[in-house]
Amino acid sequence: MELSRLTAHELLEKIRNKEITSEQIHSDLNKKIEELDPKVKAYVRTSHTLNPEPSVNLKGIPVSIKDNICTEGYHTECCSKILAGFNPPYNATVINRIIASGNSFLGLKCNMDEFAFGSSTENSCFGPTHNPWNLECVPGGSSGGSAAAVAADEAIWALGTDTGGSIRQPASFCGVVGLKPTYGRVSRFGLIAFASSLDQIGPLTKDVRDAALLMNIISGYDANDSTSVNTPVPDYTKDLINDIKGMRVGIPKEYFVKGLDPEVKAAVEEAISKLKSLGAQFKEVSLPHTEYAVPVYYIIATAEASSNLARFDAVQYGLREDQKSLIDMYKKTRQLGFGDEAKRRILLGTFALSHGYYDAYYLRAQKVRTLIKQDFDNVFKDFDCIITPTSPTPAFKIGEKTDDPLKMYLSDIYTISVNLAGIPAISVPCGFTKKGLPVGLQILSQHFNEGALLRLAYTYEQNTGWHKIKLKL
Amino acid sequence: MNYETVIGLEVHLQLKTKSKAFCGCSTEFGQEPNTQVCPVCLGFPGSLPVFNQTALDYAIKVALALNCKIQEYTKFDRKNYFYPDLPKNYQISQYDLPLSLAGYLDIELEERQKRIGITRVHMEEDAGKLIHQENFSLVDFNRTGIPLLEIVSEPDISSPEEAHEYLTTLKSVIQYLDVSDCDMEKGSLRCDANISLRPVGAKTLGVKTELKNMNSFKGVKDALAYEIQRQAGLLDSKKTLIQETRLWDAKAAQTLPMRTKEGAKDYRYFPEPDLAPFIIKEDKIAEIKKTIPELPKEKIKRFVKDFGLSEYDAKVLVALKETAQFSEECLKEYRDSNKKPVANWIIGPLAALASNNACEITDLKISAASLVELIELVEKKQVISNLTGKIVLEEMLKTGKGAQKIIEEKNLAQISDSGSLNVIIAEIIKENPKSVADYKTGKANALMFLVGQVMRKSSGKANPKAVQDLLKEKLESV
């Protein structure tokens, strides 16, 4: 039996029954990584960090960690040259929670778009990750490494981060479950910030039960993060109920328009009829400000990013290009250290915050953000959940959109509003295209109602079984 | 031409919280460089700020004492600029919704009071310190993240002297609140000044200069005085002034233009997304209000009213909170309706003693009760003379003994009984026939000379008043 193919809850059961040990899981996982990762490239720095200190790191079920989440003593570089060699002297709160739960994290870090800037994991200084379902395709992004690792059984489960869809879109492209929690549910301490008001850490897993389990571990108030919310964390596995009779689900008409791939549309419509047959009540709803989500997002997210990334200045850590003057050191280091997309976003954000433009861009974007949030509040007065496609298309070819940033930005069109509103959402597999690429179904709910997402997703998963279809590599 | 001066001051005040504004690091001054740092104040990636609630309480306390209106809804903003002493390359500060607005501070000028408007008091974090070497610079982050208050005055100040008085009064108020050391040398209080001139009566403001790098209140005063001369000179000769930042060079006693980068500064302020905006509730404000002690202005009034002191004496006694407390104890303890001697003793001999020991009055180990005992022995009971009193005071400091005990041990009590005094007086009259004759012819000075001689012969122990009375009596009969 290949242990790496199992889910965390299956493995925990076997450990509990003393059928297997954690060491066996690790060694199985390592074998799998050595076998597949040269093709998938889900992990970075594999050559020098493959279990460097196995003795300290073999408890419970290992979680694979995205490269922007700080792991003490292990390189954390956001897949950017500018953080080359950065070894944080502290763990992110989620890492400490994983350790406290009796589990561990893998010594390897998952590939990602540099600083989470992207939707394809092509903007990594370590090169792209390949979609395990079709190695010529992207795995989505920015948590593409985490999603691909889970899909290829190179990980049992993984953590990603989601600023505008970076967990859900790659989950959808790779046929795994990805959950973006409510803003404030999971501590951001130790997550190297992209856009502080949008970022959340969340699980990428092989099924919904694992997502609930990992949520139980990482959720909760953290005094070190002033934006984390002090509300009790329910036991999310209690929401794994195979019954959705009477659940009220909205279908936003603005999400089923031009640009939606027909195969994706068909898969999502089929999922809706399946859920109807299981007793959910569907109704068309309207989120009228949807069309502004992408521009609003790219103003707010880049504005925050431009400020968050200012600290990479060669003074204390990371890359340093020594020059005659301080300004030249800043310039040369940042010129060589940041990739094109990072530079593009820093420039965009700097512009949006500049004197004379602030009111027209940043301030207006914040106002529209409030309207987008109100759209959801209005719908959730009458509905438990909203269902949409996760992404308008299945995974695209590597290199297909790299020359057209705007086209790339539109692949997040269905996921971005969720971050602007701060609500939770999950992507679950809902079928395949004719070419065999996975399609994802997105479920949204109101603040701190992760339970509703899990219940709907679990019921759908149990009654369809898409998650059981395994790829062959 | 005659010009009037328009000055506004910007004061940065380090709050003396135990830990920094957004992390748990110590704020202690003078430690080894980079020993009071952590990932948060070093701005390490992934670290997040958590606001120190004591810093908020202190800030509210200062704002209230400066009569500001506390804003119900307030937030932090990021002020973005690159500088190596700023590890995140942005400073957490407050921009459009500061903690408090629209206050004032009354200052005492010669024979009049003036109200200086306070535009705003807002919270921010301190930056680190650069230490420049010959070919390189080092940075010490110990100071990074210490809570700062920025106190911005209205351009209501009209002279360097007023600026000095504003700072002195401000410092006194802040020290009463016990929230900052206000030590310009240690940098816990820093002051920048904006100054411009305009023809007397003009409505519009002239071109202003921003002055930096003043290291003392006197430095602020001197820099402003210099700048008035410089600007007036330029205006008189019809030269154009440029708006610029100038640095005060205390040694050369002049201001020099600071080398600046081209282009206007754009700090690209935006709301700090790592810290949620917050609401300051009325009951919190009320609670903090209760902790504000009687401030100097009120205390001076009360000292004048309750103890019959002069405005000047009261002001001197009240300037420092600890001294004020000590003085009040002495004033209450002293059993006489005329309290003037107490003020005299504290402002005079006691202050001199403190100054000789390079400390404050309250650092001397002399209690209010023991000082009052001494003052009463001199002023009321006249057991010793004023001069002897000062010697006893020094002895009290040296030995820790009480005044009465020292007088007894050293046999310093005044001789007031006529028996012993008459013996000495008789001798002096015999020895100084010329002075006696002078006195007889009406020369008043002669009497004082003879009193002095008696004092000398008694080794200063004779009671001068008794000596004078007895001498007069004796001289009549010569």
What does this structure look like?
The complex is a heterodimer of chains A (473) and B (478). Chain A has 473 residues and is an alpha/beta fold. Chain A has a single domain, classed as Amidase signature (AS) enzymes. Chain A has 15 helices and eleven strands. Chain A is globular, with a radius of gyration of 21 Å. Chain A starts with 7 loop residues before the first helix and ends in a 9-residue tail after the last helix. Chain B contains 15 helices and 16 strands. Chain B folds into three domains: 286 residues, no CATH class; 115 residues, no CATH class; 60 residues, Arc Repressor Mutant, subunit A (Orthogonal Bundle), CATH 1.10.10. In chain B, helix 6 crosses helix 8, helix 7 packs across helix 9 and helix 13 packs antiparallel against helix 14. The mean pLDDT of chain B is 85. In chain B, the strands form four sheets. In chain B, strands 2-6-7-10-1-11-12-13-14 form a nine-stranded mixed β-sheet. In chain B, strands 5-4-15 form a three-stranded antiparallel β-sheet, with no helix packed on it. Chain B has a two-stranded antiparallel sheet with strand order 3-16. The longest helix of chain B has 20 residues. With 478 residues, chain B is of the alpha+beta class. The N and C termini of chain B lie far apart (73 Å).
* Tally of alpha and pi helices of chain A: 15
Give the helices and strands of chain A as they follow along the chain: HHEHEHEHEHEEHEHEHHHHEHHEEH
Shape of chain A: globular
Strand coverage percent of chain A: 5-15%
Summary keywords:
heterodimer; A: 473 residues; alpha/beta; Amidase signature (AS) enzymes; 11-stranded mixed sheet; 15 helices; B: 478 residues; alpha+beta; Arc Repressor Mutant, subunit A; 3 domains; 9-stranded mixed sheet; elongated
Indicate the topology:
The complex is a heterodimer of chains A (473) and B (478).
Chain A: H1 8-16, H2 22-40, E1 43-44, H3 46-49, E2 62-66, H4 93-100, E3 104-110, H5 144-151, E4 157-162, H6 168-174, E5 177-180, E6 200-205, H7 208-218, E7 248-252, H8 262-277, E8 281-285, H9 293-308, H10 326-337, H11 340-353, H12 359-380, E9 385-389, H13 405-409, H14 416-421, E10 425-432, E11 438-444, H15 450-464
Parallel strand pairs in A: 2-3, 2-4, 7-8, 7-9
Antiparallel strand pairs in A: 1-3, 4-6, 5-6, 5-10, 9-11, 10-11
Helix pairs in contact in A: 5-6, 7-15, 9-11, 9-12
Chain B: E1 3-14, H1 53-65, E2 69-70, E3 73-74, E4 77-80, E5 90-93, E6 100-109, E7 112-125, E8 129-132, E9 137-140, E10 147-153, H2 160-177, E11 189-199, E12 209-212, H3 217-236, E13 244-249, E14 254-257, E15 270-271, E16 278-279, H4 282-290, H5 296-307, H6 311-318, H7 321-333, H8 340-356, H9 368-380, H10 386-399, H11 403-410, H12 418-431, H13 433-440, H14 444-457, H15 464-477
Parallel strand pairs in B: 12-13
Antiparallel strand pairs in B: 1-10, 1-11, 2-6, 3-16, 4-5, 4-15, 6-7, 7-10, 8-9, 11-12, 13-14
Helix pairs in contact in B: 2-3, 5-6, 5-7, 6-8, 7-9, 9-10, 12-14, 12-15, 13-14, 14-15
